[in-house]
Write a structure and sequence with these properties.
The strands form 2 sheets. An 8-stranded mixed beta sheet has the order 10-11-9-12-13-8-14-15, with helices on both faces. Strands 3-4-2-5-6-1-7 form a 7-stranded parallel beta sheet. The protein has 15 helices and 15 strands. It is globular. By secondary structure, the protein is α/β, with parallel strands linked by helices. It has helices at residues 10-18, 26-36, 51-63, 83-96, 113-121, 131-139, 156-159, 165-173, 193-199, 228-239, 254-266, 280-292, 325-332, 353-363, 458-467; strands at residues 41-44, 76-79, 104-107, 126-129, 150-153, 180-185, 204-207, 218-225, 247-250, 271-274, 297-300, 315-318, 342-349, 368-372, 400-403. Bound molecules: adenosine monophosphate. Adenosine monophosphate (AMP) binds next to α3.
């Protein structure tokens, strides 16, 4: 299918053409026509497969026609869980709306209110917002939703989970019942269905990922680690690899992210930290430096796990495993975007064995064990990982040794067949040719991706604090 078959207005097609996209991605191919027909949607596809355009293009199509209603409030509202993501979506609106007259803006926490008050006082077409700050403006009566036509929840599973659902429902209740609602997500939990039902009318489903949550274009490796020092030594080794052009290193705490970024800088690496305790200005600067290639290593907490689209991230390194299995999927999705390939390397100590088990269950496959010659772990990963994960003795040789545990370890608990990936149906050629940035569809996946657990970890607090700063009960 070509973009011209999507029946988008000529200025939108022109902008898409300028981006160099030769064909819609599967999620765009399926979601855009349904969205243009006016249906409510629950759309899921793996990270980095063009979801943003899949909702921004139909949003712009609406804006290409004049509103039938009087007023100056936004006609489209996109809600995102993080400020970085909101900025990115705003950028996408500008990119794809380049040849249209679109007035758009972002309403985010962590930045002064003044500019946002000015934005809301002017006629505006599209607002991209994080919920906390938007509710602040709502409560002070500055937002006019009377002509809102379209509400989009990006990273919808996150927007509907405990941290955000109340805020999202409050915002949705302030918009006209006649609105169209689109939910886009990479990971979907059936427990969200009830809440989705409240927000959506007769939704249609678009499921590109099927139940396969990770892309085969991302090579996933696991290194067993004895200690923090061992992790650091392995990290230093990996950083010597010239093929590692740009990497995000995920750490579980803000303090450690700062410390690691400092250590790496002292060792002569171009490294920056990114976490929720930094000012918004500093967060934006770190991302911009990464985007411009001035920084090779971004040491981040899960604030960078979702949605962040930086071209050319060759590696994601999980210095610590995420507590939540689905965060693993989001983290590694920072590489292998837009049809590119990527490498995701995770370190796991025995203390993280349970997290590893949850992750492997969630993605439906064991992570491939690797060892670095000379840096072999002294102890095998604790058996409670349940993943057949003895790592120490085998695979070492010259360079990185690899052991592909095609089968689950003898005597260890196997995941149910439904949890195991059927590689035969998960084609590695999900994307079209990387060079022409085109996608091919017709893929089918078979895998069960059960959500591991509700998040109660620090990452959640971080997200919440972003949008629920101190100004009001929401902010
Ligand atoms: P997203 O999943 O929306 O973050 O998009 C991931 C990347 O894919 C972004 O860098 C987009 O610019 C790129 N992209 C989106 N749609 C297409 C397309 N149809 N063809 C090629 N690249 C695309």
């Amino acid at each position: 299918m070509s973009f011209s078959q999507l029946n988008l207005a000529a200025p939108i097609l022109k902008a898409v053409e300028l981006c160099g996209y030769s064909a819609p991605t599967p999620i765009q191919e399926q979601a855009v026509p349904k969205a243009l027909e006016g249906h409510d949607l629950i759309a899921s596809a793996q990270t980095g497969t063009g979801k943003t355009a899949a909702f921004v293009l139909p949003a712009l199509q609406r804006i290409s026609r004049p509103s039938t209603l009087k007023g100056k409030g936004p006609r489209v509202l996109v809600l995102t869980p993080t400020r970085e993501l909101a900025n990115q979506v705003s950028e996408a609106v500008r990119t794809y709306g380049k040849f249209l007259r679109v007035r758009s803006g972002a309403i985010l926490g962590g930045v002064p209110y003044f500019e946002q008050q000015r934005l809301l006082a002017l006629p505006v077409d599209i607002i991209v917002a994080t919920p906390g700050r938007l509710i602040d403006h709502l409560e002070s009566g500055r937002v006019d939703f009377s002509r809102l036509e379209l509400l989009v929840l990006d990273e919808a599973d996150r927007m509907l989970d405990m941290g955000f659902s109340e805020a999202v429902q409050t915002i949705a209740a302030a918009t006209p019942a006649s609105r169209q609602t689109l939910l886009f997500t990479a990971t979907w939990d059936r427990s969200m269905d009830a809440l989705a039902k409240k927000l959506l009318k007769d939704p249609q489903r678009v499921e590109i990922a099927g139940r396969k949550t990770t892309l085969d274009t991302i090579e996933q490796r696991l290194h067993a680690a004895d200690s923090m020092q061992h992790k650091s030594r392995m990290l230093n080794h990996l950083l010597e690899d010239k093929a590692l052009t740009r990497a995000i290193i995920f750490s579980s705490t803000k303090r450690h992210a700062d410390q690691l970024a400092r250590e790496l800088t002292e060792q002569g690496h171009a490294a920056e930290a990114l976490h929720g305790d930094m000012t918004q200005g500093a967060r934006n600067r770190a991302i911009t430096k990464m985007k411009r290639g001035n920084v090779r290593l971004l040491v981040a907490t899960d604030v960078a796990a979702r949605g962040l689209d930086v071209t050319g991230i060759s590696h994601v390194i999980n210095y610590d495993l995420p507590k939540n299995a689905e965060d693993y999927v989001h983290r590694i999705g920072r590489t292998g975007r837009a049809g590119a390939t990527g490498i995701a390397i995770s370190f796991a100590s025995s203390r993280e064995a349970d997290q590893l088990t949850r992750i492997e269950r969630y993605i439906g496959q064991p992570l491939t064990r690797h060892v670095i010659a000379g840096l072999e772990p002294r102890y095998p990963l604790a058996a409670r990982s349940g993943s057949g994960a003895g790592t120490g003795s085998r695979g070492a040789g010259t360079g990185s040794g690899t052991r592909r545990p095609g089968s689950w370890g003898a005597g260890q608990k196997q995941p149910s067949p439904a949890l195991r990936v059927r590689r035969d149906s998960a084609s590695p050629k999900f994307f079209g040719d990387r060079s022409d940035r085109s996608w091919s569809s017709n893929e089918s996946y078979s895998q069960d991706g059960k959500r591991g657990m509700r998040r109660k970890d620090g990452a959640s607090d971080e997200f919440r604090r972003d949008s629920y700063a101190k100004k009001s009960r929401w902010a």
